[in-house]
UniProtKB/TrEMBL annotation:
<dbReference type="GO" id="GO:0009264">
    <property type="term" value="P:deoxyribonucleotide catabolic process"/>
</dbReference>
<dbReference type="GO" id="GO:0005737">
    <property type="term" value="C:cytoplasm"/>
</dbReference>
<dbReference type="Pfam" id="PF01791">
    <property type="entry name" value="DeoC"/>
</dbReference>
<dbReference type="InterPro" id="IPR011343">
    <property type="entry name" value="DeoC"/>
</dbReference>
<dbReference type="InterPro" id="IPR002915">
    <property type="entry name" value="DeoC/FbaB/LacD_aldolase"/>
</dbReference>
<keyword id="KW-0456">Lyase</keyword>
<keyword id="KW-0704">Schiff base</keyword>
<protein>
    <recommendedName>
        <fullName>Deoxyribose-phosphate aldolase</fullName>
        <ecNumber>4.1.2.4</ecNumber>
    </recommendedName>
</protein>
<dbReference type="GO" id="GO:0016052">
    <property type="term" value="P:carbohydrate catabolic process"/>
</dbReference>
<dbReference type="InterPro" id="IPR013785">
    <property type="entry name" value="Aldolase_TIM"/>
</dbReference>
<comment type="similarity">
    <text>Belongs to the DeoC/FbaB aldolase family. DeoC type 2 subfamily.</text>
</comment>
<comment type="pathway">
    <text>Carbohydrate degradation; 2-deoxy-D-ribose 1-phosphate degradation; D-glyceraldehyde 3-phosphate and acetaldehyde from 2-deoxy-alpha-D-ribose 1-phosphate: step 2/2.</text>
</comment>
<dbReference type="GO" id="GO:0004139">
    <property type="term" value="F:deoxyribose-phosphate aldolase activity"/>
</dbReference>
Amino acid sequence: MSTLTTSPAEIASSNASLRAFLHGLPGVDRVGADQRAAMLGTRSIKTTAKAQAIDLAISMVDLTTLEGADTPGKVRALCAKAVRPDPGDPSVPKVAAVCVYPDLVERAVDALAGSGVKVASVATAFPSGRSFLDVKVADTRQAVQAGADEIDMVIDRGAFLAGDYRKVYDEIVAIRQACARDAASGGEDAHLKVILETGELATYDNVRRASWLAMLAGADFIKTSTGKVSPAATLPVTMVMLEAVRDFRDRTGRVVGVKPAGGIRTTKDAIKHLVLVNETAGDDWLTPSLFRLGASSLLNDLLMQRQKMTTGRYAGPDYFTLD
Ligand SMILES: O=C[C@H](O)COP(=O)(O)O
């Protein structure tokens, strides 16, 4: 693929030029993508490689709670689990991040202080994204001020589907600016994950276009779904996004991460995703700094399978705390 000779700002100088660029990307062969993802999903991994894959998957989990009924107590318990997933086995790695609503960020920051586990906050009128830009910017700023290390924003799917790419681009740029940490605090800017909500984008071509749009606008990560819309993280959609980050690096030199989220519940699902990463974007992406699994209830299955591999038997159903 050829190097991008025009800057993202030039490409986005008007909706027409952005549209020309996005619609000039090669189309996705839907049947071929479904078949390839299904074929990669049948690869089996055994013994040592499986044990390593389970630990890698644990270290990539964004342990998530995004319920209206979330409480400070639930977030505290989740944070304890994030740092020490199995209190009986200190060799289990900690997860990558805990993902919560903005008003619970402070609780998570307190509970995770010094642990190395990041705090991710959803923002921008999650999950619908339907609000005013200044409300979305304020939502983001408050989460960053409360100490969020990562912001998971949603795109305006209505604008995207109406072909108003420039609006989506401008909004991502504005949210990226809102991720900047106050210079006086000396901290790093919050990383920006851009949720495409692929279940609402209708076609794989749109998934590819939305991936590029988010990356051109400055996303650090592209994320499939909110977990509130079905389908969420399917293998072919994740594959299309992995191809996009691979091609984006080839054409710009910038490396963007990928986060499938929503509906990933079993060790089998997690391992299928890792195979996909390896075979599509390559092993550079097999690290928590470039690949995450957003999930509310995957961790216990990973822990159960890990224990089965170590001890030869499953723990009782009450052994692990609830996700
Ligand atoms: O970002 C993560 C998702 O909201 C989690 O979805 P899930 O509850 O289907 O695992």
